[in-house]
């Protein structure tokens, strides 16, 4: 199983260092068999010398360097020895208006650099309410043009309507949707969307679920550690 924590823009740089230190100590003593990923905010990135989990970037512009005010680029990630990245998260698609074309541009750039890519897809409530056929078409459109045979690809399905809402898709809904997505590729497939300690086990027990991308429930390191230990 893959357990990934998306810390979004929470925590100061000092708090991120404390978070990673606590996580490293716990994983060293308890030796999880799972793959653990942590995505801190930009100011929390550093050259973390950890052995039992991977630190990745939540976002980066598809260039080595350049005039892209407010962004972070390949050069900075290389400085921190970071080669894992989230691409296509719904908050960047919806709130920051990133288009499918721009997201694919990011994918191609960081694929060319050999990065492990967690590629996020997911539908809105409007599309969910139109039925499974519409959901299928929409999710497939988000995957269109992405190299689904890329060895370092992880796909994360996050229904937009459940992210941060406290409303989790039912096991039946998750199972049905992951089954549809699974027909497109054999890479690891994660679920995200209000995952927490009380539902993580039933979610990861779903046939085509290879792990979870956790948002708010991973903010406190003790909660994230608890969820790792439950799997």
Describe the overall structure:
Its EC number is 5.3.1.1. It catalyses: D-glyceraldehyde 3-phosphate = dihydroxyacetone phosphate. Keywords: Cytoplasm, Gluconeogenesis, Glycolysis, Isomerase. Homodimer. This protein has an eight-stranded parallel β-sheet with strand order 3-2-1-8-7-6-5-4. The longest helix has 18 residues, at 13-30. Helix content is 37%, strand content 16%. The chain has a single domain, classed as Aldolase class I (TIM Barrel). By secondary structure, the chain is of the alpha/beta class. It has nine helices and eight strands.
List its salient traits.
37% helix, 9 helices, Triosephosphate isomerase, Aldolase_TIM, alpha/beta, TIM Barrel, globular, 231 residues, Triosephosphate_isomerase_AS, glycolysis, triose-phosphate isomerase activity, 8-stranded parallel β-sheet
Short summary of the structure?
By secondary structure, this protein is α/β, with parallel strands linked by helices. It has helices spanning 13-30, 74-79, 90-94, 100-112, 125-129, 132-143, 171-182, 200-204, 221-230; strands spanning 2-6, 35-39, 54-55, 84-87, 116-121, 153-157, 188-192, 211-214.
């Amino acid at each position: 199983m893959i357990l990934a924590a998306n810390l979004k823009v929470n925590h100061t740089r000092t708090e991120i260092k404390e978070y990673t230190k606590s996580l490293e100590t716990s994983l060293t003593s308890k030796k999880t068999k799972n793959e653990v990923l942590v995505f801190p905010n930009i100011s929390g990135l550093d050259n973390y010398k950890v052995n039992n989990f991977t630190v990745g970037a939540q976002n980066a512009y598809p260039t080595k360097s350049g005039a892209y005010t407010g962004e972070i680029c390949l050069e900075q990630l290389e400085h921190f020895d970071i080669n894992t990245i989230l691409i296509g998260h719904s908050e960047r698609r919806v709130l920051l208006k990133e288009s499918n074309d721009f997201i694919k541009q990011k994918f191609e750039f960081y694929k060319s650099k050999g990065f492990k890519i967690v590629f996020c897809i997911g539908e809105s409530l409007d599309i969910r309410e139109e039925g499974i056929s519409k959901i299928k078409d929409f999710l497939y459109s988000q995957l269109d043009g992405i190299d689904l045979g890329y060895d370092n690809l992880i796909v994360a399905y996050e229904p937009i309507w459940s992210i941060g809402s406290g409303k989790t898709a039912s096991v039946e809904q998750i199972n049905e949707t992951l089954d549809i997505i699974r027909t497109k590729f054999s890479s690891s497939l994660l679920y995200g969307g209000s995952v927490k300690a009380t539902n993580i086990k039933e979610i990861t027990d779903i046939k085509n679920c290879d792990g979870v991308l956790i948002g708010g429930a991973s903010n406190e390191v003790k909660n994230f550690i608890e969820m790792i230990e439950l799997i």
